[in-house]
Amino acid sequence: EWTMGNVIEEQVEAIRAKVGNRRAICGLSGGVDSAVAAALVQKAIGPQLTCVYVDHGLMRKGETAQVEKDFVAATGIKLRVVDAEKRFLDALAGVSDPEQKRKIIGREFIRVFEQAQAEIVAEAPGDQPVEFLVQGTLYPDVVESGGGTGTANIKSHHNVGGLPEDLEFTLIEPLRQLFKDEVRMVGAELGLPEEIVHRQPFPGPGLGIRIVGEVTKDRLDLLREADAIAREELTAAGLDRDIWQCPVVLLAEVRSVGVQGDGRTYGHPVVLRPVSSEDAMTADWSRLPYETLARISTRITNEVAEVNRVVLDVTSKPPGTIEWE
Ligand code: XMP
């Protein structure tokens, strides 16, 4: 029988058998998938697991603080936070191609995990080796990265097609057969709080794949502000559960003429991409209320000086993917 309780039991047993008395690390992204994967593995091997949160500088506003606070409070998990902003931004300098960005981000994630692995071993050298890396890969990630059954490669998800060839970890991917709604059920069954279980999806490569063009610190700061405003207004309007997610995308290499304050501006547009979906394999654009769109637009153009236009993406998936890159 296929119940979430059974899925958990089966996975816990499989993880214990695979790991034995060795150790594992788990990359936490702040999203649902990695949180549920971590909670599941913790249930299986307890203190043999250390979670690693990589602050790659591509996070949304407030994200790092939230993971440090909420997730640890909910699970009591061992957490290391690695400040890797410089490393990621240096690696991404000069890169505009979406697949190249994804590969670089995937590679840098692994390098940071390897470093964390070395540190954990150095701190407790007598212990068992840190051999396993837990990832919150879902079934749709596998399919759309070309790892599924004869499906074309659409995007290299940072935790599937984006992994380096010389990976030294053995992967544990306990959610690999599940869809997002099932992952949420597993999370609830494991006792994770609402705020984590019902968080909207956020991609591992973060805002790095929501800047069309080169990723720079200035552009990230700007997009972070715009994104925070959109999220705030969607929450205030009570729409969080109605939409699947709403990426805000910065068209960093497009400029248009505007008039703001006392004069002419030549700024960038941001795109709102609100979508409704069951599993992210297909999606429809969300018919958000005009008043909410108006508030978001007014606030972004008032509060984020470099943005002088807000546009709405009215494309389904297919033909458009949810993220722009
Ligand atoms: P697309 O853009 O492919 O996105 O329609 C489908 C869903 O997957 C999320 N997404 C990712 N999640 N790592 C992730 O963990 C990734 O590399 C990645 N790329 C896209 C996206 O936000 C949407 O929910």
Automatic annotation (TrEMBL):
Annotated keywords: ATP-binding, Glutamine amidotransferase, GMP biosynthesis, Ligase, Nucleotide-binding, Purine biosynthesis
Signal peptide span: none
Superkingdom of origin organism: Bacteria
GO molecular function, one term: GMP synthase (glutamine-hydrolyzing) activity
Annotated pathway: Purine metabolism; GMP biosynthesis; GMP from XMP (L-Gln route): step 1/1
Binding site for ATP: S29, G30, G31, V32, D33, S34, A35
EC number: 6.3.5.2
Substrates-to-products reaction catalysed: XMP + L-glutamine + ATP + H2O = GMP + L-glutamate + AMP + diphosphate + 2 H(+)
Boundaries of every GMPS ATP-PPase domain copy: 2-199
Role according to the record: Catalyzes the synthesis of GMP from XMP.
Record note on quaternary structure: Homodimer.
Name of the protein: GMP synthase [glutamine-hydrolyzing]
Organism: Streptomyces physcomitrii
